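ok, trying the design again with the full structure, not the truncated one.
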């Protein structure tokens, strides 16, 4: 193996381990090589057991820690924006809704800014800021401790305040989805608020891009059968699709043209 080839593959491995998942196009831009070269490297590295190969990119073999918020903001940004736009189409003017912590729910909030007379309860400071320009929008921010690294409001007070309300929609993001449909998160502080949203929303939307099927947080939020609609950017694994059909959960897969 040449020194240049070894250096490039080490760079790929470092990026994948740092971000959890990286698209082939992003790797190609970072390395100044073609996508075909990246795919060839990833195939070989996957065969060597260094990383996991997926449609459109590569992931770490041990995605057990969450990615930094600044990295999550740009990771799969186009897909998250497309997911957010699609989910926002299902929200009528005048609706009441919970919105929780996460970069995909923030993308959803950006797409709500032309809606009118929404009533929003959130434990996410960024969501509140994004919705401030929305016409006649009513905003309630939960109590709790502000997590400065990502604008999340966490702790018992946040969940307790959510429990005081009933909303038309609960829109949640998630850090990971296990093969059996279990919804997982990295931070136990976020779980109680997400569970309260599921309990107190008449309709629950789950927003998650395909990388969430590659990550394995330890904390259990609930099960995908508890939601009413799932918005994502690629078809889920067959086992998840079977669970969605069994429990009459609507599946919305954003088309490739929406992510371009």
């Amino acid at each position: 193996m040449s020194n240049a080839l070894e250096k490039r593959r080490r760079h790929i491995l470092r990026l994948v381990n740092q971000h959890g998942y990286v698209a082939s196009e992003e790797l190609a831009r970072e390395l100044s090589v073609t996508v075909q070269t990246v795919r060839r490297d990833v195939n070989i590295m996957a065969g060597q057991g260094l990383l996991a190969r997926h449609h459109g990119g590569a992931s770490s073999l041990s995605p057990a820690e969450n990615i930094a918020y600044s990295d999550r903001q740009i990771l799969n940004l186009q897909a998250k924006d497309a997911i957010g736009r699609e989910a926002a189409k299902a929200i009528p003017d005048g609706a009441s809704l919970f919105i929780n912590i996460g970069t995909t729910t923030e993308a959803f909030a950006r797409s709500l800014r032309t809606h009118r007379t929404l009533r929003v309860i959130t434990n996410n400071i960024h969501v509140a800021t994004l919705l401030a320009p929305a016409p006649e929008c009513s905003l309630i921010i939960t109590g709790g401790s502000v997590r400065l690294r990502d604008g999340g409001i966490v702790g018992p007070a946040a969940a307790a305040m959510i429990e005081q309300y009933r909303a038309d929609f609960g829109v949640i993001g998630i850090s990971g989805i296990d093969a059996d449909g279990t919804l997982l998160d990295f931070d136990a502080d976020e779980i109680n608020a997400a569970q309260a949203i599921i309990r107190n929303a008449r309709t629950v939307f789950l927003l998650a891009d395909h990388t969430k099927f590659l990550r394995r947080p330890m904390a259990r939020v609930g099960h995908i059968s508890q939601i009413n609609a799932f918005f994502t950017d690629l078809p889920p694994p067959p086992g998840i699709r079977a669970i969605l059909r069994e429990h009459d959960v609507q599946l919305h897969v954003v088309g490739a043209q929406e992510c371009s």
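Keeping the full-length input from now on. The two ends are 35 Å apart (CA to CA).
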